[in-house]
Design goal:
Number of helices: 13
Shape: rod-shaped
Strand content: 5-15%
Radius of gyration: 43 Å
Structural class: mainly alpha
Helix content: over 70%
């Protein structure tokens, strides 16, 4: 009962991170029908291109074996072993190319669906693989019913194809039985080709549908609830509340550092209440005035307050203060477009200092 609401809540497509993690765990969409189709294609290729020669060679061997049994003595254990080896070698030569084709087809079907990769997680023992509950859900879940219906469909199709083919070719089969082994083998080959062509055609349709279904079902299983998406975002990007708190602490530290640097400033540029920029300039040391602090509203007022306590000149210029606040950065020299305006203010500061020294 609890699975329904849980699945209904999974309304969001899987994120890139979840898809990447799933792929790294080796949980990829896989269609069994593609592998079966590749096997039938391999058998069909063998039957069309290789089986004729193999059947002829094997037929000649069986013909010689049946027509001249005296050529194969079986008096001793050594004779039996020699005959056994000969038969195995002849049969092996006939089916060797088939085994190679089946191997290549199986590997090709796997690569066609997903690039091979080593995943240790897939070979690690897991209790869920022997869990009765998990096994029951796999057998009687949606995927289990789909596999069951596919198996019924394939079984029904196989029966229909065999009945139809044998009903059409039973005369050929009966006629071939009274011919020599080589000719009879070719008759069987022709019937097998007819059966395989029909099977490959229908299996191609089944495999195409199953391939689409397997990938659709895989994506459906990966769907996430809105809460899961939020939790994943928090894990990957960090909790927004914590990040906001960290940003606040960083701003507080930067503000305290600026306030500590204000007493070293040479002058303050401000408009009456909104902006304040503290500049430091030491002749023969600084190439250009350096911004040691800047602030807006309450911070601007605090900068002006510290400047007054330390007898730092404050110049009120609304346009200049507003323009500089937007373009300057703390601990950096001012942009070149402000050189002339600031140089005039610095000249005034140094002139007043010189006058004070003369009067004193």
């Amino acid at each position: 009962m609890s699975d329904g609401p849980d699945k209904d809540s999974k309304t969001e497509d899987a994120t890139e991170k979840k898809i990447r993690d799933t792929v790294e765990q080796g949980k990829l969409p896989h269609s069994r029908e593609v592998a079966i189709l590749s096997s039938f294609v391999a058998i069909l290729v063998f039957t069309v291109f290789y089986a004729k020669d193999a059947i002829v060679d094997l037929g000649m061997f069986l013909s010689m074996f049946l027509e001249k049994p005296e050529a194969w003595p079986m008096d001793t254990e050594t004779d039996v072993i020699a005959l056994y080896k000969t038969v195995i070698i002849e049969v092996g030569r006939a089916v060797l190319s088939l085994l190679v084709l089946l191997t290549v087809a199986g590997i090709g079907a796997s690569v066609f669906q997903n690039m091979p990769q080593f995943v240790g997680e897939r070979i690690r023992p897991q209790m869920s693989r022997i869990s009765i509950t998990k096994g029951w859900s796999r057998m009687f879940g949606v995927q289990g019913w789909v596999e069951f219906l596919k198996s019924l469909g394939k079984l029904g199709f196989a029966i229909v194809v065999l009945v139809f083919t044998l009903s059409e070719d039973h005369r050929k089969l009966l006629a071939g039985m009274i011919t020599n082994p080589v000719a009879f083998g070719l008759v069987i080959r022709g019937i097998a080709v007819d059966i395989l062509v029909a099977i490959v055609f229908v299996m191609g349709l089944i495999a195409a549908v199953d391939l689409v279904w397997s990938r659709f079902h895989w994506k459906q299983d990966l769907r996430m609830s809105k809460q899961e998406v939020k939790d994943e975002f928090k894990q990957s990007e960090g909790d927004p509340i914590i990040k906001a708190r960290l940003r606040s602490l960083a701003r507080d530290r930067a503000r305290k550092r600026m306030m500590t640097a204000v007493p070293t400033a040479t002058l303050i540029i401000a408009n009456p209440t909104h902006f304040s920029i503290a500049l430091k300039y030491v002749r023969d040391v600084d190439a250009a005035p350096v911004v040691v602090a800047k602030g807006q509203d309450l911070v601007a007022l605090k900068i002006r307050e510290i400047a007054r306590e330390n007898n730092i000149p404050i110049f009120e210029d609304v346009a200049l203060a507003r323009s500089m606040y937007k373009q300057v950065s703390v601990d950096n020299v001012i942009p070149s477009q402000f050189y002339q305006a600031v140089a005039e203010l610095v000249r005034i500061v140094y002139s007043k200092k010189a006058e004070r020294r003369l009067t004193s």
